[in-house]
Amino acid sequence: MGGRTLIQYIRNQNKSDVVKMLSRNVDDSNEASLVAKAIIEDVKARGDIAVNAYTKKFDGATIDDLQVSQSEIDEAMQVVSVDLKEALQEAANNIRKYHEQQGSNSYFINEKDYRLGQIVKPIANVGMYVPGGRAAYPSTVLMTAIPAKIAGVKELVMITPPKADGTIQPSLLVAAAFAGVDKIYKVGGAQGIAALTYGTETISKVAKIVGPGNSYVAAAKKIVSSVVGIDMVAGPSEIAIIADKEANPAFIAADLMSQAEHDEDAAAILLTDSEALAEAVKMELAKQVEQLSRKSIILEALSKNGAIVITNSIDEAIDITNELAPEHLEILTTNAVDVYGRIESAGAIFIGEYSPEPVGDYFAGPNHTLPTNGTAKFASPLSVTDFQKKTSLVYYSKEALEMRKDAIELIAEEEGLTAHANAISIRFKR
Ligand SMILES: NC(=O)c1ccc[n+]([C@@H]2O[C@H](COP(=O)([O-])OP(=O)(O)OC[C@H]3O[C@@H](n4cnc5c(N)ncnc54)[C@H](O)[C@@H]3O)[C@@H](O)[C@H]2O)c1
Ligand SMILES: N[C@H](CO)Cc1c[nH]c[nH+]1
Ligand SMILES: [Zn+2]
Question: Annotated catalytic sites, by residue?
């Protein structure tokens, strides 16, 4: 292991110091932002020519037709194994069933002389970014596209960077077909975000862009967010586990590493009141990591943002967790249901030793795009609501307005807005 600390131990610290030690400085890279800005301006000015130039530069691909054809999708259906297709289909069914419970509904308040309402409509056209490279996840396609389609998005456009040979990972195309994506384009990075924002000769502009990506994609989304809607900017993955002395150290080590393998900046934290468990988990980490293909990423993540925190009690572990507001939280204690009832902030909670986090990543139904970096204190998992918008409705009859005109005029006058007051009073002048 080259002398690097496998994972840091934190003990004998007060709660706020532990939270400080575990809070991450997410690199809001200015460099990525400058690069993304230049690419966006270029795509805005030169459209497809710029898109193709950046695809050649960053992905090494020469693309004749930006849009994925039906025959490419049919071919992907042939290439992907029956077993994987069945697994994706079952996952899709679970995700659909869960998300069908979500979403806001229109409502109306009908009184005898007025009518008020909230009208909920789907966002008409949405672009979804699907990362390429080592994070080309068909599960993320399902998690993004299914809630969009449940909301009623008419035109759901997926963009993803091509491989150097100009193809897209077949399982991404299969997942997109299962989820009902309408169009797929071979473009990624900031150029893809720019194309969705401003439109090009081939790609139509959308009203909202969702989906995770690397620092260039995240920077581009932030830059265009004054022009199009964006979802949350999800950062590197995080897992926190609260466990007591009864928990299985092998399971805990495995679960910590399941998130650490996402990338070098992922965070994996165990909070326990048991020294013996902490030691056993550390040994399991060292043992199991040897068997894993992404060993070097896991070791880097554990050494940078991994920690085993020995707390005085499970109560203290709960308090620290509520301050951290982790993306994923596993509860592996004898009284897990009681502990879960006291969690105020977490993206997703997994209870008991047979609900490891990857069950949620792939299969159970809840969304795996979750708030990271403490934002679970105010933000929520991606949901059907992210693909809806609301309009309010007011209807007053003549009688209704006449009855309330003095109150309205009074408030307008208090604000010094006499034109507002006039728009009311003019209707009743004889
Ligand atoms: N939170 C989630 O649910 C979730 C799911 C999947 C992936 N992710 C994250 O998405 C990210 C995927 O990153 P990725 O890089 O594999 O794929 P990506 O598709 O996000 O980025 C690839 C693109 O980045 C651009 N790029 C690369 N180097 C560049 C440079 N020097 N200058 C300008 N642009 C450049 C290129 O256009 C390239 O096509 C990871 O950070 C991963 O953790 C998160
Ligand atoms: N755990 C990731 C979100 O933090 C999502 C994911 C996709 N594939 C596997 N995991
Ligand atoms: Zn994951």
Answer: 327-328
**Boundary of a domain, candidates 182, 203, 230:** 230
Tell which residue, 51, 287, 344, 320, has the closest CA to residue 186.
Answer: 51
Phi, psi angle pair for 344, to nearest 5°:
-95, -35
- CA of 258 relative to ligand 3 center, distance in Å: 7
Q: Can you give the C-alpha Rg of the chain in angstroms? A: 25
Pocket test for ligand 1, best of 141, 191, 216, 372 (most atoms within 8 A of CB): 216
How many domains are there within the chain? Answer: 3
Mutate to test the pocket of ligand 1, among 30, 128, 191, 217 (most ligand atoms within 8 A of CB): 217
Ligand minimally distant from the alpha carbon of residue 193: 1
Q: Which residue has the tokens 């554990």?
A: 302
Average pLDDT over residues 312-323: 96
Does residue 254 share a domain with residue 121?
Answer: no
Token pair for 293: 């293909």
pLDDT over 90 for what percent of the chain?
91
Tell me the pLDDT band of 235, cut-offs 50, 70 and 90: confident
Query: What pLDDT is recorded for position 412?
Result: 98
Q: Which residue has the tokens 């109306």?
A: 108
Q: Which of 154, 150, 131, 151 is nearest to 141 (CA)?
A: 131
Tell me what the mean pLDDT of segment 414-427 comes to.
Answer: 98
What pLDDT score does 139 carry?
A: 97
The helix (H) or strand (E) run that includes residue 271 is strand 267-272
Residue 371, ligand 1, Cβ within 6 A: no
CA-to-CA dists, residue 414 to 372, 393, 408, 409, 421, angstroms = 44, 25, 10, 9, 10
| Atom 25 of ligand 1: nearest residue by CA position | 189
Q: What CATH number should be reported for the domain holding residue 220? A: 3.40.50.1980
Q: For residue 257, which of 241, 274, 235 has the smallest C-alpha distance?
A: 241
Distance (Å) from CA 177 to ligand 2 centroid: 20
Q: Given 183, 203, 230, which residue is the final one in a domain? A: 230
- Structural domain of 412: 397-428
**Which pLDDT belongs to residue 272?**
98
The answer to whether residues 224 and 240 belong to one domain is no
